[in-house]
Amino acid sequence: MDSPEVTKTASTPSAATETAAAASSIGSPIVQESPFSNYLSNLSPIKPVKNSRILPGYADLSSPPLVFTSPHIVSKCEASSLQRPQCPQKSGPETPKDNVGISSVDVPPGLEKCDSYLSSKFNVDSEKDGDHSSYTKEQHCSPSGVVDEYLSEPVDTECTDCVHSANPITETEPSIGPRGLANLQTIVLNADTDKEAPTFALPTSGQGSSNCVLSSDGLLYETLSVQNLHANEDYYDHVEAGLDDPGVSQLYRGMSRRCLQFEEAQGIGQGSVPAMNSPNSSSDPMGLRLPFSSAGMENSKILNPGIAAPSGKRTMINLTRGLISNRSPNHNSNARLSIPKRSGIGLHLNSIVKALPMECNVNESMKTHLSENEKCSTQLSNSVEKITHAEEKMLENQVVPAVVSATSDSLLTMKSVSALQSLEPNETPPKKRTLSLEQCENYNELNQSSPKKRRKKFTPDGDGCKRCNCKKTKCLKLYCDCFAAGIYCADSCSCQGCFNRPEHEDKVLETRQLIESRNPLAFAPKIVHQASGVPAVIGEEVNRTTPASARHKRGCNCKRSMCLKKYCECYQSNVGCSSGCRCEGCKNVFGRREDYTIVEEIMSSTTSKDGPNDIADEKLAGVDHSNDLFHADSSELESPAPFTPQCQFSEHGNDAPKSGPFSTRYLPSPLSHMSTIQSDSKTSSPTQTGDSLLAEIDCRDMEFTIAEMIGELSPKLDPISGICYLSPQRTASSSAVAASPSASKTKDLSTNVPRPQFEVGSGGTHMSSSIRWHGLPVTPMPSLGAGKMIDDVLMEEEDTTPEILKEACNPIQSVKATSPNKKRISPPHAHSKRLELGSIVSGGLKSGRKFILKAVPSFPPLTPCLDSKATKLPPTRKSNSQQQGK
DNA sequence: GAGTTTGAAACT
DNA sequence: CAGTTTCAAACTC
Fold it and tell me: Polar residues bias: where (predicted)?
């Protein structure tokens, strides 16, 4: 906890060792254990972990549903984010050599859910550049399946053992593609597999050791050996360089801020990191400002005692020091600083990126390696490039639905780097360490709050740095962007009576804990990256900047801004709205809610038999069919109704209330149905972010599933099949709606955006329509429909993403786990059970995925989902009523 | 720069 | 859990 001490540790080699020891506690095998070191480790905020294992804390963290419920798989997709021009990419100089091998890990289907699987290795030869960069992809499915866990899981860097071995780019699991699951990419830098060369393995995968741990916070903790540090440093350097580049978006800077205080360290930024930064920080390129670990201080403590500890400043400072120390010759080669990348809430994303660098193991080699760092950096960049290319291919070929949780973000950062390169090779081919757009975005958010150094929100301010202007909250509430971001307010802030300063660290921490106690996710990064190989949601086309994958965890609740103004958190973050949003009349340029998009389709296609609601109309109007999803399938879209049939079940009875309208096979206005669906999706999505994430992750899958479901199912309304199929959906939708406790859901339902429901009976659903759905990349829909579908019916891909998916998918669980958002986790992949529709599986599915509806006993008993639905139904009514009331 | 609007956060 | 209030940012003028 004691940050100051941490600094000590960092500074001294011994400290490094100590830190390593601490890390060992985490799970680093290598860590030296000496009482002293242990002591130090305890003191030092920074825990040296060679191999960060999943911290127990993590498990805990993960466990909490609210925390990252849905692990988003880090998707390469983010690579899509690459788009973000903003993110400065480091280019060239760094690119070069690739001693470091980066491996992208494919996330196994399960992983997708879990998402956090990133295994990456960083093996860098301090002495020599890692000549060998092995580039391997591993897919880990976190067996645990719980995304949260994944998230929470710290990454062990050391585990070279882990999957990645020398094999240069290898994908352990090609499977990703088929499922469309996002592949988690992990960059492995293997210069040479040093003994200590850390590797990231996702523990969750069950494969075993993972070096990287994802914290519930979504932070990726990595333990790096000194060598790694070098690599990281290089990485950061590159990043910084990128920042320096005019081209680099402020966002990027912002990211850097939080993650690293490059400015100070390198002076890239302004370097002034007022309160937060310790004097030392200036020198530290790595200096992080992590006043808080978002998710958990706890986690951080666990994972990174040092970081977590005390005050953000200290931690920041400590980290920086640690880095410095690393560089300093003094560092013991052995000693490692494992700086867990804390994902403080705000930091998450940043943390990822930073984490890598942060996690430097301080080795003497580090010293020597400092020079090497450059090499490493170049190597890394090279490796990254490689990776990115590979990933690009992967992505292109495969849709990676995986959603990246906040933690994933970190992972993403890793990936993103590669992805970015891969994705935007053209744009910034050289920059290897470029961050993905998503990352950037995330950073932005995070940065926004980041106080001094770079809060870089992308604000109109030239800097993009934002500063708070709190007057009454003393900057101790989430109203304060700085506080919310887990950073101290900067001098530049205009806040009054600010307590969010290092001097009030205690108070800040206390407050923070209180808030977290109420809402564990309060400080979690708001934006989750979904793996998006796929163009995410409808809006994505529009999304220029944001990777489709990125989504706001909680979603927005905009009523009047149409999600076209910064009032909208989604929009502000440059991310599209998702099923988790309860916005009305969403026109988010970065991606409208699935529901809306769906609605649009419906509207367009059907031309609204029933006059869509005004809102709906507006939405429709707003939505251009050209947009994304529909575009793709424009022809299909036109087709009358993409309606999915709803099954009318006994469950309906449950649903009935809601469904009242729903009950009708076709809702008078499809839109209304749609709305319901959306709501469902939203509602259904377990509030837990993780879940939601999962749901999102699977969006495509969902699409497919839905399409399949619809197409196949609808036609097959057979009592049996039909029931099964439908029941789940309907129930899901209806139930979901009803179930969705969140008022927001109700809002959604009631209102403005009516969403079409799928009714089986209506028969309206045409195979084609279903197909369309398939085609539709729309995340929302898929999520909705899919989510519902999934929930209700267990749809599994043939591939199986087993447990994780199941878990995630577990409708009940997901549903039960009510995350604040109540997002439903769509187990798109959930494979576990399929009711085979027999032929149902539509070969036509884009993905080629086959979902078998495992017996969804259509009825209540079946899947928890169904049950949940039934149970939930009542609520939906309420919600509806409420909405109506509104 | 002041005032209004907006939606999240906090409170009840 | 839902509704209301408070808050600060975003926006408008």
Answer: 672-690, 877-886
